[in-house]
Design goal:
The chain is an all-beta fold. Strands 1, 29, 30, 31, 33, 35, 36 and 37 form an 8-stranded antiparallel β-sheet that branches. The protein has a 5-stranded antiparallel β-sheet with strand order 21-22-23-24-25, with no helix packed on it. The protein is built from no helices and 48 strands.
């Protein structure tokens, strides 16, 4: 047997989260918000609960802080490691934006508006009104001074996200009490109204610029409010402020979106969107003809067969998939693979229709062999499921089966490259079938001898013996023997015993009669054994074709071959 030097490596995949969840939302730190049976919590990449699955809702919009809800009530918040701050007894409600912004969450209660932040043990507030932070700043309404706490007269403060304290605005001689309105920051600017006059304030340059209806900076073009304090109306999904020369629109975060001056087209302003994190992935999706199921590739190579109802997200080497109506997360390992060997990577000589050998999957040591099976996907290989053997150590994990190979259709006397289709099933995942290559050839398993021949006029009679080379194999293999003459010589033959045949040939015109003994074992290719017998001149000589000639019948020396593996009749091999 020759070493073929060929084996196959198959990339491996495994579950990060098994498909047992109603929903899964990956977080940036590698943890996951999961839903199960109508409740939500958080698990890590080892599928351990780090936030109990007991909340009605766990909302992570961005950043590393999430909000917790039970019974439609805001009850607390958590970081992405599952550390919870419980505020269920404070009666807070979230509003406008249900998320942390710049590290602050705007909430309100019966006692006023507040900000929650993990940096402080107590809420920041109360305020008459408060808007979510935007670009590092947030406006809040506060009483103008102590005597106005009860009468409701207020002004504005602008809080800095860095300190949580009021920022100092450069208002060109104006004081905080002069502020009638201030919007949220957008592109580093905000709209501010000082004593009914509209300005644009630039946080970066700390400059104040009057707003005008045209390019002239005179009193007739200055934008002026209708009254003090400025009246803000909410219409649909936007806020509107009317002034003497037109109106302004703001989004729900009070960021400027448009200005319309009387008789002029509306000037629109883009509000910067939060950056969308796009993550490339080497994983791509494959489809299955005739079904709606999906499989996965890694760097263009098939890894997982079509088995998923949906693949909703791919990032890095991970994929969020749906299987049997539930969601899970699969990881394709780019650094490890399983290696297959068939017959110890040696070429396989076939003596009969089948040969018994061994198939192995040699895998990384962290793979759990009890979760793995090997199955054949065609009739060329039958895996004996009751011959399973497992070997595990610190270096490798090996799963092996005895298997029966069917003789290839294209086999010949020379080595033929062929393959067996084998698939790994691991922890509920079906790997893409692997074509395991091996070299095979067919052995002349019989010896054919010309025992005698007799020439009687124009009739030649030959007695032939057919015997099996492997005398140790006592299995009764069905074979068909036929004898045919060449050169239009008529030939008939009959079976004298299990191993002996007689052939009668006549009508020959040549000096030598040539004929072939054909042996076809069930399911195997036909093998030809050629003979030639002189019938003119030295009529007593006979020899096999392609062998030496002599005056006596010659026994062909059988081709050397290894001892075959005895068939184990008591085992049943089942194609899985």
């Amino acid at each position: 047997m020759l070493l073929t030097g060929i084996s196959l490596q198959a990339q491996i995949a495994s579950w990060v989260l098994h498909p047992t969840y109603d929903k899964i939302k990956p977080l940036n730190n590698g943890n996951y918000v999961v839903s199960k049976n109508g409740r939500q919590g958080m698990v890590n990449a080892q599928e351990q609960e780090i936030l109990p699955i007991q909340y009605d809702k766990v909302e992570f919009y961005s950043g590393d802080m999430g909000l917790l809800y039970n019974g439609n009530r805001f009850v607390g918040y958590t970081d992405d490691q599952g550390k919870v701050k419980d505020v269920s007894d404070m009666g807070f409600k979230t509003y406008i934006m249900d998320r942390f912004s710049d590290g602050y969450l705007a909430v309100k209660s019966a006692s006023g508006h507040y900000y929650l932040t993990p940096k402080r043990t107590v809420p920041l507030g109360p305020y008459n009104e408060a808007c979510p932070f935007s670009e590092g700043y947030a406006w809040v309404k506060v009483p103008k001074n102590a005597k106005h706490i009860m009468d409701g007269e207020y002004t504005f403060d602008v809080l800095s996200a860095k300190t949580g304290e009021p920022a100092i605005l450069k208002l060109d001689g104006h004081t905080k009490e002069d502020i009638d309105f201030i919007s949220s920051s957008s592109n580093g600017r905000c709209i501010i109204v000082l004593k009914k006059r509209f300005y644009e304030y630039n946080y970066r340059s700390e400059t104040l610029m009057p707003l005008s209806t045209d390019d002239y900076d005179d009193n007739t073009s200055r934008v002026m409010a209708n009254e003090r304090p400025v009246k803000v109306n909410f219409e649909g999904d936007r806020f509107i402020i009317h002034f003497k020369q037109g109106y302004m629109t703001f989004n729900n975060l009070m960021q400027l979106t448009g200005i319309t001056y009387n008789g002029q087209p509306t000037r629109t302003f883009d509000v910067p969107e939060p950056p969308v994190l796009t993550v490339s992935s080497p994983i791509s999706i494959t489809t299955s003809e005739g079904t709606k199921l999906l499989g996965l590739k890694h760097l263009g190579k098939d890894v997982l067969a079509a088995q998923f109802e949906a693949v909703e997200r791919r990032w890095d080497d991970l994929a969020l998939v749906k299987m049997n109506g539930r969601y899970g997360v699969v990881r394709i390992d780019p650094n490890h693979s399983c290696r297959f060997t068939l017959n110890g990577n040696k070429s396989i000589p076939f003596e009969h229709k089948t040969v018994n050998t061994e198939i192995r999957a040699i895998c990384p040591p962290f793979m759990q062999l009890p979760l793995m099976t090997l199955s054949s996907l065609d009739n060329s290989c039958t895996v004996g499921i009751d011959t399973r053997q497992e070997i595990s150590n610190v270096e490798t994990a090996i799963l092996s089966y005895e298997c029966t190979l069917q003789i290839p259709d294209n086999i010949g006397l020379g080595q033929t490259k062929t393959n067996a289709r084998i698939a790994i099933n691991y922890d509920g995942l079906k790997f893409t079938p692997s074509e395991i290559p091996y070299n095979a050839w067919y052995i002349r398993n019989y010896t054919v001898e010309l025992l005698s021949h007799h020439l009687n006029g124009d009739e030649l009679t030959a007695e032939i013996q057919v015997s099996r080379t492997n005398q140790n194999d006592d299995t009764n293999y069905f074979r068909n023997v036929s004898i045919e003459a060449e050169d239009s010589v008529e030939c008939s033959f009959s079976k004298l015993s299990e191993d002996r045949y007689t052939a009668i040939m006549h009508g020959f015109t040549q000096n030598t009669v040539r004929f072939n003994v054909f042996i076809t074992e069930d399911g195997c290719p036909t093998i030809s054994y050629p003979f030639s017998i002189p019938v003119r001149g030295n009529a007593s000589s006979a020899a096999r074709g392609n062998e030496r000639r002599s005056d006596t019948p010659v026994r062909q020396k059988p081709v050397s071959k290894p001892k075959p593996t005895p068939k184990k009749e008591e085992k049943k091999f089942i194609l899985k």
